[in-house]
C-alpha cells in the first residue's frame, strides 16, 4: 500500500512538472513568434 502511494505521489509530481514545463515552453514559443 505504501509503495503504491509513493508511486502515485511520483506521478503527481511528474504531471505537475510536465505541466509547468509545457506552459513555460509555450510562453517562450509565443515570445519568439510575436517578437
TrEMBL record:
It comes from the Bacteria. This is Csn.
Amino acid at each position: 500500500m505504501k509503495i503504491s502511494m509513493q508511486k502515485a505521489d511520483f506521478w503527481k509530481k511528474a504531471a505537475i512538472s510536465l505541466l509547468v514545463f509545457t506552459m513555460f515552453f509555450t510562453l517562450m514559443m509565443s515570445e519568439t513568434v510575436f517578437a
